[in-house]
Amino acid sequence: MDWQGQKLAEQLMQILLVGFAVIAFGIGYTIGSFQMMLLIYAGGVLLTTLITVPNWPFFNRHPLKWLDPIEAERHPKPQPSVVTATSKKTKTSSKSHQK
Amino acid sequence: MHSFGYRANALVTFGVTILAVMCAMASISDNLNIPSPTAHVQVMNVNWFQKQPNGNDEVSLTMNVSADLQSMFTWNTKQVFVFLTAEYETPQNSLNQVSLWDAIIPSKERAKFWIHTTNKYRLTDQGSNLRGKEFNLTLHWHVMPKTGKMFADKIVMTGYQLPENYR
């Protein structure tokens, strides 16, 4: 999830939860059913979970654009492993010669 | 909000906070309801009235209790507990309260009731002060909500008197 996606996910989560809470309380109070309020809100929380918790593709529409590694290409790292390997080889070879 | 776990945690925390706010609002909404209950108790008969071996007066009554408590029920009411007490004054105690009968009313439909009953719990005095005693019958109730604050109130019914002699 990119930065824009994270912001969107948090805002969606807050707006949806508050919205469902208002709807649930309104309906529950109007029809006089506490149970209905809880059921509507529980459904709302479930729906909000499905929308905002998984990493959906629409949270990844603004990927970070990293610069190309130009400098690294210009100055490649020296590779000491090759040098040591060759020196070792020469050493061992010299030892074997002595024997 | 960068990972599944963080988003789930934030959602649950915020969701539960809102749920608490909703419950608080439901409790506050109970204040909008102004109940107007009625109650009437008739003492039909004094079944017996005697002095116990330890010297305390005890009386058994038969009563007709009728009440309409439907206006107490709101959408946030779980049940209503009602109890009837005999209240009187003696030289020792300025207020004696003896519970005679109680009931749990689980729904609005059953809140308008009429019952013919003897006292469920013994009406016993601390001493022998009950002969000819004037007393009040008081219907107390506790409205138990689904969430939030519990309300309690009572109706006092005056003008009852016990007989002058044991029987």
Automatic annotation (TrEMBL), chain A:
Q: What transmembrane ranges does the database entry give?
A: 12-32, 38-59
> Matching InterPro entries, A to Z?
Spc1/SPCS1
Bias (Basic residues) occurs at 88-99
Gene Ontology terms: biological process: protein targeting to ER; signal peptide processing
This protein's GO cellular component annotations are:
signal peptidase complex
Q: Does the keyword Transmembrane helix apply?
A: yes
Q: Where in the cell is it found?
A: Endoplasmic reticulum membrane
- Annotated keywords: Endoplasmic reticulum, Membrane, Transmembrane, Transmembrane helix
Highest taxon listed in the record's lineage:
Eukaryota
Q: Look up and give the membrane topology term.
A: Multi-pass membrane protein
Query: Which family is this protein grouped under?
Result: Belongs to the SPCS1 family.
Stated role: Component of the signal peptidase complex (SPC) which catalyzes the cleavage of N-terminal signal sequences from nascent proteins as they are translocated into the lumen of the endoplasmic reticulum. Dispensable for SPC enzymatic activity.
Query: Which protein, by its recorded name, is this?
Result: Signal peptidase complex subunit 1
Lineage of this protein's species?
A: Eukaryota, Viridiplantae, Streptophyta, Embryophyta, Tracheophyta
TrEMBL record, chain B:
An example Pfam family from this entry, by short name, is SPC22
Q: What InterPro entries does this protein map onto?
A: SPC3
Annotated membrane topology is: Single-pass type II membrane protein
What does the UniProt entry say about where the protein is found?
Answer: Endoplasmic reticulum membrane
Cellular component, GO, one term: signal peptidase complex
Principal location class: endoplasmic reticulum
Q: Which UniProt keywords apply?
A: Endoplasmic reticulum, Membrane, Signal-anchor, Transmembrane, Transmembrane helix
An example GO biological process term is: protein targeting to ER
Which protein family is named in the record?
Belongs to the SPCS3 family.
User: What is this protein's function?
Assistant: Essential component of the signal peptidase complex (SPC) which catalyzes the cleavage of N-terminal signal sequences from nascent proteins as they are translocated into the lumen of the endoplasmic reticulum. Essential for the SPC catalytic activity, possibly by stabilizing and positioning the active center of the complex close to the lumenal surface.
Name recorded for this polypeptide: Signal peptidase complex subunit 3
Organism this protein belongs to: Aquilegia coerulea (Rocky mountain columbine)
